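Supplementary Methods, section 5.1.

A reviewer requested that the exact input to the structure prediction be made available. We therefore reproduce it here, unchanged from the version used in the analyses.
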Amino acid sequence: MCGITGFLDKTSCKKNSQLTEIIVGMSDTLRHRGPDDQGAWVDENCGIALGHRRLSIIDVSVAGHQPMQSQSGRYVIILNGEIYNFKALRKELELEGFKFRGHSDTEVMLAQISRDGIEGALEKFNGMFAFALWDRQDKMLYLCRDRLGEKPLYYGFINNAFVFGSELKALKKFPGFIVEIDRQALTLYLRYNCIPAPYSIYKNIKKLLPGEILTFKIEDGSFETKVYWSVSDVACDFIGDNWNKNPQETAQEAEALLKDAVKIRMESDVPLGVFLSGGIDSSLIAALMQAQSNVPINTFTIGFGDKRYNEEEDARIIAKHLGTAHTSLYATAEDALNIIPGLPQIYDEPFADSSQIPTILVSKIARKFVTVCLSGDSGDEIFGGYNRYTWLENIWKKIHLFPYGSRKLLACLFSSCSSDCFENIFEKLKFVLPVKLKIRNPGIKLQKFLDVLSAPNIEAAYLNLTSHWKHPEKVVLEQKGGINKLETENSLSFFSDYKRQMMYFDTINYLPNDILTKVDRASMSVGLESRSVYLDHRLVEFAWKLPTEMLINKAGSKSVLRDILKRYVPTAYWDRPKMGFAIPIDIWLRGPLKNWADDLLSKEYLKRKGFFDPEVVSRKWQEHKIGARNWQYELWDILMFNSWLEFNNINS
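The structure derived from this sequence is encoded token-by-token as follows.
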């Protein structure tokens, strides 16, 4: 894993020394992503500069140094990420006469591109990556992002120069960068607790979409984007109704794919391990890793004293059964709170998924022992793991029979009762409730039910269910024209199958913009490479071939993964209610974070900054403080944005 950045300014009269000074300054901002090596390549004749910070994983020798040129000298590349199948590709290329100086995946990429062209090569790459490729012959710059968006890439124009980088901090270092907040992006941020691609927090900067190629032409300074792979194309080829294999055969095929996905992701010249939560996804990855290792693999878990959020005991049981070298840490509230001041620096733009905090903590633990960590991220989106898929479909089939006006009125009446109130009611009734009603965090779940109850259709219900602020355009000041709908929102009616609608939406929106962003920034902040096994595109394509009933059925969610895991770990060790990776922000805001939040949520502060309606935000803060309502998610959105403003010294 690395950090990349660069710029192309055909009007520049700068000499190589000047271009080098600028690009080194930009790449130095990414040192945390690549602490082992740095490199720059410039050409004053074209006004181009490429910068690279390296975290040495494959071929840690100087032969893996970047920027790297192809043997012909035609191409120059900078890569952030890994090509997992590079050894197989290299063998094919060697049979055709290609020679290699070292054994890095980057050198194989260049050879493959030289042979097949960029689009042909991309079809063959199995990996996570964001890279820039300069074609010295045709004077073309290419930016490419991996299929599902595991690695980030920003781009835009600054002072007529085309600029790009792994993180915004590199672009901000370019001379003449102007801070202008995109209020449309800010509105979307309040809805999703992150800024979805192609938006960034700045008006002049965009994110490259997953599975996209950007081609910049130096002759006229224009660029165009093209999709080379997309979940929508895979979904269009959905053949679930034609699947003729039984569950046992299906599980065997899935296991074979998973084993290979794990195997190629265990390729490393440095120590590696796996994040283990004790849930289905990470437990299966740990089991498959240990089955392919001659020594105990490293597993890492973080625990909390609050039982609502603690999975450490479950993970420890799994680790003991598998025989891993397990490391766990019980994080205190103080440990977590100490992370908060550094969040604006780590995430670079507003980001409000509070599980960012435990993700950073567990990354810090892992980095003490390894440089690479596999993860179970994205198993829920790809194999149908979220409870809401079944829950919403079942609920909607019942409540949509009632008139919309009546449902909306009922939701309004019950909304006056806080989630804490519901929690207290369930606590008093827990000894007489049947097992199926003994759910985790019942207050929060009942609030979500009210969000669904008030929706006119299932598409709106799902957006309500997954949104923080339901009407963010009423909160963001000077936001003109309402809130733009993402293309992903227009795709919710793509399938007649409700569960598939939701899985599709999460895979192209929630997964890259929230989950993968969270993990990339958290792990890279400590120089740790995270690899998601379930994002192997072969697994994604396989999962979309399956009938929904093979993923989600009476046996539970992620049925295929369950069938595989029970071969390695007794069901009793992992078959339990889904918990999630969260922290008690609601309690902390009324306790140790109260003074900090008071400052950033005061009417005076909000008026001075001029981004949010002071009355709306202040009212929610007051209700939360006294326990009348639980507005932890909405308030965390505002707090993360305001702390980002403070860190960057930005005013309206």
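The chain has a mean pLDDT of 90. These observations are discussed further in the main text.
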